[in-house]
Amino acid sequence: MSTKVQSDKEKHDKEIEEVENDNRTLLEISPKFRLWLELDDESLSEEDKALLGKGGALLLQKISETGSISEAIRDVPSKHGAHKKTGLSYRYAWGLLKKISTRLKKPIIQKFRGGRKGGGSELTSTGEELLRYYIRLENLIQATLADKELWEAISLKLIDKNRLEGEVVSVMRDPIAAKVKIELKVPTVIHSLITTEAVDDLNLKEGDTVKAIIKAPHLYLNVA
Fold it and tell me: Quick one: 122 and 64 in the same domain?
C-alpha cells in the first residue's frame, strides 16, 4: 500500500471515528425549555411585552381546576424564597393576573359570589383561550423535541439511521476521483464521490455490500 493511500485511509478512518464520537456525545444531551408568551408590539419594552410564562400558566390552570385563587396558589411554586415551599402569595398572584389582564386589555379572571364556599374565581373566555394557546404551544414543542427523525432532518443529532446499508451497483473511475453508485435497501440509490485510491484501498466492486455514513458535505463508505 502506498504512503498516500495509507494516509488517505487513516484520514478516512479518523473522520468516521469523529462522526461516531459526535453521535455518542449528542445522544447524551437532552434539550430543555421554558416557554413564555410576549405581546407582539415593538413600541413596548422587553419587560412590558412579557405576558405569560410557566408559572402564570400553571396558576391559570389551577384556578380553572379549583375555582379559587386561594386554593390555586398552594400548588404553584414561587421564585421568591420566602414562599418557595408554601406557594405563591395571594398578593403576588392577584398582581400577576391583573398585569396580564391589563396588557391584553381584557379580563382573564372573574370573581363570583354564592355557592357552597361563598364564592370563588373562574377564568373568562379570554383567560381560557390564553391558557389553551399556551398548553398547545408547549405540547407542540415537547413533541418536536421528542421527534428524533426531525432532529436528523435539521442535523441536530446523528443516529443509526444516518448509516445507510446498500449494494454497490457501479464504480466509475478516473485518475483522480471515483463515483460510486449505491442502491439502498429502502430502496433508494445514492451517489458518493470519493478518491480512486480510496476505491482501491477499500477494494470496492459491483455487488459489494457497504454502509454509507452521511456527514454533509461528504459521504463516507465502510465495507460491511
Answer: yes
